[in-house]
């Protein structure tokens, strides 16, 4: 079974950057399609970005051009680089892959 542990969230101001990490164990991350989702209080879960096993990436329109998903296969870690953060990016961010989901890391962006 795949285990996923996110880190890197925090409280930042609008315009700042954060890099989220998702440590993968139980399976080699390079063989997995993995993604990031987010959920704000009172809102539906929202797709953020995904990366296929071959390295192709796809983004939600709301984050395209600001967020970058990547993976380090040697470290078995998934990343989400978030630039030009906006208050509407405030949410619990979690990674998914191999049928599993992490507990999430909170990102709060103040205006």
Write the layout of secondary structure elements.
Layout: E1 3-7, E2 10-13, E3 18-25, E4 34-39, E5 46-51, E6 57-59, E7 67-72, E8 77-82, E9 91-97, E10 100-101, E11 105-110
What does this structure look like?
The protein has strands at 3-7, 10-13, 18-25, 34-39, 46-51, 57-59, 67-72, 77-82, 91-97, 100-101, 105-110. Strands 2, 4, 5, 6, 9, 10 and 11 form a seven-stranded mixed beta sheet that branches. Strands 1-3-8-7 form a four-stranded antiparallel beta sheet, with no helix packed on it. The radius of gyration is 13 Å and the shape is globular. The protein has 111 residues and is mostly beta strands. It is built from no helices and eleven strands.
Key words describing this protein structure:
single chain; mainly beta; 7-stranded mixed beta sheet; 0% helix; globular
The radius of gyration computed from the alpha-carbon positions, rounded to a whole number of angstroms, is 13 Å
How much strand?
over 45%
Order of helices and strands: EEEEEEEEEEE
**Stretches where pLDDT falls below 50 for ≥5 residues?**
none
What form results from the Cα inertia axes?
globular
Structural class: mainly beta
DSSP E strands, number: 11
Count of helical stretches: 0
What's the mean pLDDT score? 94
The N- to C-terminal Cα distance equals 40 Å
Helix content, binned percent: under 10%
> What kind of assembly state do the chains in view correspond to?
single chain
The main sheet comes to: 7 strands, mixed
């Amino acid at each position: 079974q795949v285990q996923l542990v996110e880190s890197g969230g925090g409280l930042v101001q609008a315009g700042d950057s954060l890099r989220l990490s998702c440590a993968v164990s139980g399976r080699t991350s390079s063989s997995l399609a993995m993604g990031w989702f987010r959920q704000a209080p009172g809102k539906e879960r929202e797709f953020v970005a995904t990366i296929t096993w071959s390295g192709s990436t796809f983004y939600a329109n709301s984050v395209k051009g600001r967020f970058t998903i990547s993976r380090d296969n040697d470290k078995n870690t998934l990343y989400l680089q978030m630039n030009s953060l906006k208050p509407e990016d405030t949410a619990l961010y979690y990674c998914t892959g191999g049928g599993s989901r992490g507990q999430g890391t909170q990102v709060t962006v103040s205006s």
